[in-house]
Amino acid sequence: MAGGHRAQWKGFLKFSEVSCGVALYTAASTSERITFHTINRLTGNRVNRVFIDSETEDPVPKEAQTKGFEIENGRYIIIDPEEVAAAIPESNKTLEIEAFIPCADVDDVYFDKPYYLTPDKMGGDAFAALRDGMKKSKVVAIARTVLFRRMRTVLIRPHGKGLIATTLNYDYEVRSSAKAFEEMPKMKIVGEMLDLAKHIISTKKGEFDPATFDDRYEAAVAELVKAKIEGKALPKRKEVKVSKPNDLLAALRESARMVKAAESKPKRTAANANAGSSRDKARRASGKSAAAPAVQRKAS
């Protein structure tokens, strides 16, 4: 894959009696986030993590550490890593498609992690046939294989010249929406309040463009780092004013007025809104290189 990225998994994609060699590459990364180390406030030195026995309070070296399952309060059965590895289904390195379904059939609450799925040099024709066939038929594929020492269900869909493979959460891992919303009272909004809400929605319709979304947390942390380096006053968080039930109609009216006023103002372009990452801003403030300790890079 271009850019020097290392494949997370290599194997075969099989549909019916056709198969081709493929590779999975991470589609999302947190390596550009600003990260911190734990520091001893008294000495300024970095703190190392040490595992302590809960009863003896003695340090436990790495070679003495193992896994355990709690069978009752304070009692554990020891499970060695070798036993866990032996219990995992054997991987044949085949991502086997079990069914083609309409994309709308999959609730995105089950989506876990996305990966780019690409062909190897010898399987390009079969890969392209599957990709284009799915596009024409307007379907996605459900496949299963062992990924990273665990049996996973994967949703595969066409994406540009390749495919996106998204691992799916199991049903037991997804909370029930009925339970999550069970304490919400039944409400029906009508009249002017509903009309104002619909007006605000209609005037703010747009298209999904991730390039226009800025990470406000990262930007705030970058500003904090910059202020600390330069010895300036630290930024203060603005309090959020929550609309009370009696003020809701007035708040909707004010929102509608502000939306109308904003329509007459020129919009910022995505390029201006995202000029320079938060990490780059923090680096410039420190006057240091990419390896500067003020802002550390995580391993991908």
TrEMBL record:
Similarity comment: family membership: Belongs to the prokaryotic Ku family.
Record protein name field: Non-homologous end joining protein Ku
Keyword DNA damage: yes
Residue ranges of every copy of the Ku domain listed in the record: 57-186
InterPro entries: DNA_bd_Ku70/Ku80, Prok_Ku, SPOC-like_C_dom_sf
Quaternary structure note: Homodimer. Interacts with LigD.
Gene3D superfamilies registered for this protein in UniProt: 2.40.290.10
Biological source species: Rhizobium indigoferae
Role description: With LigD forms a non-homologous end joining (NHEJ) DNA repair enzyme, which repairs dsDNA breaks with reduced fidelity. Binds linear dsDNA with 5'- and 3'- overhangs but not closed circular dsDNA nor ssDNA. Recruits and stimulates the ligase activity of LigD.
Domain of life assignment: Bacteria
